Amino acid sequence: MLRTLIATSRLRIRRGSSAAPERFGYTSRRESIGSTTPVAQSNSTSFRSPTSATTAVLHNKRFTAPTVARAAAAALLIVAGNACSDSLRALGTTPTAADTHAAQLFEAMITRFSLNDLSPKYDVARVRLAQAALIPSRIFDDTSMWEAHPTPTSRVFYVSGTGVDGGRYRLDVRPSLTPATRLGDSRHTISLEQLGQISESVYRWDTRVDLAVGSVSAEEIAAMASALFASAEHRNERELREEYRTSFPRAMAAFGRGFTIDSIQTATNVSGITSVAITASFHPELMRPAFPALAKYLDKYLGPAKYHLALADRSGSPMFDIVGAQRAITIRYRTQQGKLTSLFGPPRAWADTLVMTADVSLKVKLFTVGFQGLVTDFVISNTGHNRSWALIARREPKWNLPLFTESLLRSPLHRPFDGEGSFMSLSVRDSLGAQSIFTRRTQFTVQESTIMRFLGGLSSHMIGELDGEVENEEDRFFREGFVALDADRRALVPRWR
């Protein structure tokens, strides 16, 4: 995926110690992603971003994740920017088709991240939904909140989004949803069910967001993702940097307002296996001149954040690794003949189901909170006209919470992992004669309790600081990034023919 932008005035290259493993044997450099190439300008001043890990049940800007998730999404866009021009070429069987599909994809994103125009009802409802994420009883019986009551124990909320005149994006509550037919159209469904057979204090959130992205097929989206990772094969750091400078100069300039690439380390062995380690960093001083409120918010929460995501197969063989701390993120992987393979030893192909283990630590107010050893199934589906990637959590992690919470009943913390567990998925599906659809879905069960009220208070504090000014700057950051990527696409097309 993810949740780009305006240029820095000059290219920065610095030398320093490498955050990546020494085995790759390269001298680390930290390079601003900026360049002297101007960024294509947009008329928009704001945007809406995706969902939150803390309030994983909700899919709109006011419910977005703690900054770790947003910064990680930006870092993944940086990784995409490192890819060669062939990554976009993979979006079609011919150069003309690839150009059309890439143009539609970027137009959809530019539309979606335009200045949001919120209906009054939606603007009020989204705040109330966020505040009630971990205490659903606050809104469950409020008849003014919900658009449908399918059963006595279920509620549904519908939101439709579309581009409108004036370069804005209208989000409005609807009694029902129609199919998304225009680029950038979105359809949001938020469902809440009271699980009375377990307890009246137990609720399940189920949310889904669809985004129309044009005529690109699911298979072509998967091919682009593979091309992104494979772009480092048989190339060294100098060659990769030169490639992305010439292929994506505007996008790299856009990313330079806030992010740097510290190192791109590669090593190819005699078997043709290429090991890759990319380290990118967030720098508030680079973001502050153009996006002061966003820089302050990101620095407050990303600065002390620490996280580690490790992907392995069922036998425990490492497959993919992401480490974040001190505003930096390092991504490690290996490829062979264009496909991702195991991180170490003889190459092992990725299975359809892998295991992801996550550790996360955040500081909110005076408290450091998080978890260790969250084990989830990572399920990859490549069938027909659908491609999907899902995380399913059925095992409770070790929680890192303030000492005084030891006196509180902690069994509700296990509730999200009972039965079928909780899940989050990203997918793309295509169908003849209709828009291809990106879908983001989450399902999460919560049991109301004192400990959940405490956690809800922390998440509400983070959400409260995500005010209109921060939202507007975040919108502009991402929208201008996609404008820059689209301008680079137009310059790349002649090279494909």
Short précis:
The protein has 497 residues and is an alpha+beta fold. Helix content is 29%, strand content 31%. The model is unreliable at 1-68 (pLDDT under 50).
How is the secondary structure organized here?
Blueprint: E1 13-15, E2 29-32, H1 67-81, H2 86-89, H3 95-112, E3 115-118, H4 120-131, H5 137-140, E4 154-164, E5 168-174, E6 186-194, E7 202-212, H6 218-230, H7 237-247, H8 249-255, E8 259-268, E9 273-282, H9 284-287, H10 292-302, E10 306-312, E11 318-325, E12 328-336, E13 339-341, E14 353-364, E15 367-383, E16 386-393, E17 398-400, E18 422-429, E19 437-447, H11 450-465, H12 468-496
Parallel strand pairs: 3-5
Antiparallel strand pairs: 1-2, 2-8, 4-5, 4-6, 6-7, 7-19, 8-9, 9-12, 10-11, 10-14, 11-12, 12-13, 14-15, 15-16, 15-17, 16-18, 18-19
Helix pairs in contact: 3-12, 8-12, 10-12
